[in-house]
Amino acid sequence: MKPRHVLLAVAITAVWGINFSVIKLGLASMDPFILAGIRFTLCALPAVLFIRKPDVPWRNLVAYGLVFGVGLWGVVTLGIKAGLSSGIASLVLQVSAFLTILLGAAVFRESLTRYQWAGFAVALLGLGCTAFITDGSVTGVGIALVLLGAASWSVANIILKKTSPPDVLAFLVWSSLFAPLPLFALDFAVNGTAGYTQLAEHLDLTAVLSILFQAYPNTVLAYAAWNWLLKEYPVSTVAPLSLLVPVFGLAGSALIFGERLSVPKLLCLALIVVGLIVSLYGRRLATALSGARRRQAAPVPADA
User: Fold this and answer.
1) Alpha-carbon gap, residue 176 to 72, rounded angstroms
2) String of b and e for 188-201 (b: at least 16 CB within 10 Å)?
3) Could you report the per-residue pLDDT of 109-141, keeping only the tens digit for each?
4) 106 vs 229: CA distance, rounded Å
5) Closest CA to 274 of 240, 248, 249, 250
6) Rounded Cα gap, residues 8 and 236, in angstroms
7) Confidence (pTM)
8) Which backbone phi and psi does 288 adopt, to 5 degrees?
């Protein structure tokens, strides 16, 4: 990759990582479902007036919008509200990579390699290390909700793969139309009008900036730039950089909220990232190491 494109990819992962802290800032002024609902409203409007509907079935747009908007970000936002720190949320959500592999194997009849199973085991060990975090940044409800969000993200990935939209940005924008109303309805069902009254009374500049950041730099612009990189370079070149998301997530939470990066947290980060690397690139690394050993063991020809 060209240096400027590497910097672009790193900037995207930084935006995605910091977004978890931005969500937490917005939650100081509004309910989780309202925050997510406004985010996806802005993702869809006014963009749908200028971007042509992608040539895909409506049911795929509806399904992706509900799963991605409500099942993923509505639930993850609720998990952060339930006491899970933004840094830990960014880390736990990476479990979606493994769930996508497992779900893909079931849906597309793909066999799993020993490296994928080994990576999954290492990541589960890292997830289990959250039980040893006792500084108040982890709650059982928060972990459960973010894991549910990770499962929803996996389903969303399968929907996207089966749909194969010709224009991913248009697909994202148009599918976002179907997330806001269910999110607003969920908040009304749970809290009545209290959330909307609180929003009118406590909406401030921080909340507005939080919403705008989530809708545009994080969702529309970052996804568009990432998909452009995927078109310009092999997936195997671009995808590994996404492992930086929880690094920036934890760093952002530490800088913005003073979250302490304890040994258990760093261990969780290390194990989950190593698990992802083993699962996604274990076979390639093993082949490279095997080739290097064969070259070292090969006899050196004597000088003529």
Assistant:
1) 12
2) beeeeeebbeebee
3) 777 788 878 888 888 888 788 777 877 788 889
4) 29
5) 240
6) 16
7) 0.85
8) -65, -40
